[in-house]
Amino acid sequence: MRSHLLNDTTAEQYRLTATAAVERVAAQLASTKQPFTGTSPQELAPVLDSVDLDKPLGSTDAALDELGTVYLRDAVYFHHPRYLAHLNCPVVIPAVVAEAVLSAVNSSLDTWDQSAGGTLIEQRLVDWTAGRIGYGPGADGVFTSGGSQSNLQALLLAREEAKSEDTSALRVFASECSHFSVQKSAKLLGLGPEAVVSIPCDQDKRMQTLALARELERCRAEGAVPMAVVATAGTTDFGSIDPLPAIAELCARYGAWMHVDAAYGCGLLVSRRRARLDGIEQADSVTVDYHKSFFQPVSSSALVVRDGVTLRHATHHADYLNPRSAAEARIPNQVDKSLQTTRRFDALKLWMTLRVMGADAVGGLFDEVVDLAEEGWKLLAADPRFDVAVEPQLSTLVFRYIPGDVTSPALIDRANQYARKALFASGEAVVAGTTVNGRAYLKFTLLNPQTTLADIAAVLELLAEHAGQYLGETLVHAS
After folding, report:
1. pTM of the model
2. Does residue 111 sit in the same domain as residue 196?
3. Among 319, 457, 316, 320, which Cα is nearest to 377's?
4. Taking the mean position of all CA atoms in its chain, how far away is CA 109?
5. Which has the closest alpha carbon to 339: 303, 363, 374?
């Protein structure tokens, strides 16, 4: 029905219904006492299955009532201080305000004639980010859906810049702790399974540059082409930062494109710890995820390149959208740089955040969670019940519960896995899991400045309690 279309005649209806939705969410946030209710797919699926999508409810209030049952009540809430699992941050209010604006206006950022000022705002933010990285005036970039897309586009540019007619000879080098999107991107780009060469990490989970040098030399000796080296500034599991200056020197020596995946570590660009990214300015391209460490709603990410000319490899001119005549007339069409066509005005969220809060305030929030991780590491290191894998460089803690009277590594694995699942089922806290040297570990990803050391200590006690209960029951049954 036309009465539901947003336009000049329904502006007041929009104001009332949007306000009603905001009030529902605000009430839910205010009343949320733990990050999750503990519901299971088996419990929630029948509720969704009972909804007849061919019979509308007829009013926004009724739909919001239903939404409370099928979604809001059982959502996982990242704003809660005991959500400690994945790279999900609480979001700042100016960015949420921007979401309301950009959704209502619904600009598409592919061409100037669909976005106007939105195009220029995105370009200004790319220039601002490039300046923070340390790039010169020739830099450029584009907002993306996230780190995986940014990494894919970076490797596309690297493949084209390699100028090799034999794609089977192309090699990409990345650490064993790098993001899985490197392997996925290589596959999407038509590279063979042997194309991605895994480089071992040191005890701090940073790429070993001596090993990288050996592999680059072997690549050259075998007649293959070192297409790219992907350095990580903030690995997903450990928050570790590869030695960027040394990697940059090797890339220059062997003629490889240097890409830095700073999806997680990009928060350092506005932090008092900016020096931890020294060397990033030598990269050919950088991935940044504002929706990880700039406290932005999903999605808000970008690929930034040192030489904007290289973005031509993503350009295709369509007469109905961005004809060559538009480029000749210097009309700024962002689709000329993007793998996407239709694209949300996600840049507005970062724009509003910087205009309201400023970069220093965002960096201060990121510094708070890095500070917390350092204190959490000290707490874990002093507790004989836990083995902590590595001292954090960002805000991630990877650890393992090890009771003093149990010697079976496999049994300890199962106890840690059980503790994580039991904690999630209780809804009291949410933590992540991973493996280190084949063993099961737990992970805190600290991205909430509201989380305290007391929260960390309390969650550690809950994990130890669940793991101890599992071990006790298991050992009783075994005897």
Report:
1. 0.96
2. yes
3. 457
4. 21
5. 303
Examine the domain organization and report whether 284 and 324 are in the same domain: yes
Give the closest residue to 143 by CA, choosing from 342, 390, 9, 415. 342
CATH code of the domain containing 420:
3.90.1150.170
pLDDT tens for the chain, residues 1 to 479? 788 999 999 999 999 999 999 999 999 999 999 999 999 999 999 999 999 999 999 999 999 999 999 999 999 999 999 999 999 999 999 999 999 999 999 999 999 999 999 999 999 999 999 999 999 999 999 999 999 999 999 999 999 999 888 999 999 999 999 999 999 999 999 998 889 999 999 999 999 999 999 999 999 999 999 999 999 999 999 999 999 999 999 999 999 999 999 999 999 999 999 999 999 999 999 999 999 999 999 999 999 999 999 999 998 998 888 889 988 989 899 999 999 999 999 999 999 999 999 999 999 999 999 999 999 999 999 999 999 999 999 999 999 999 988 889 999 999 999 999 999 999 999 999 999 999 999 999 999 999 999 999 999 999 999 999 999 888 666 65
